[in-house]
């Protein structure tokens, strides 16, 4: 029973991830079109510049920037709707 639930959780996660990626891609394509440029409207948040940790031998760079757009939200909603029909 827990195996099927775990499998369903991973499939939902992958579908949502695919929805975000495809939605972001469609939003960036629609950026140049005047009647669809609202799809690329959104908010970006995260680190402006990456955090660098220099340990002498090893240099670690940490950075995170997330951009949420209308197209990405639509992609997530479609992914959840597809998951519910499966």
UniProtKB/TrEMBL annotation:
Q: The organism sits in which domain of life?
A: Bacteria
* Keyword annotations of the record: Membrane, Transmembrane, Transmembrane helix
Record Pfam families: DUF4321
Q: What stretches pass through the bilayer?
A: 12-30, 50-83
Q: This chain belongs to which protein, by name?
A: DUF4321 domain-containing protein
User: Top-down, what is the taxonomic lineage of the species of origin?
Assistant: Bacteria, Bacillati, Bacillota, Clostridia, Lachnospirales
């Amino acid at each position: 029973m827990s195996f099927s639930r775990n499998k369903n959780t991973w499939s939902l996660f992958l579908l949502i991830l695919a929805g975000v990626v495809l939605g972001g891609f469609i939003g960036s394509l629609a950026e140049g079109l005047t009647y669809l440029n609202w799809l690329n409207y959104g908010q970006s948040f995260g680190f402006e510049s990456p955090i660098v940790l220099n340990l002498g031998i090893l240099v670690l760079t940490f950075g995170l920037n997330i951009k949420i757009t209308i197209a990405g939200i639509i992609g997530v909603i479609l992914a959840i709707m597809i998951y519910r029909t499966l």
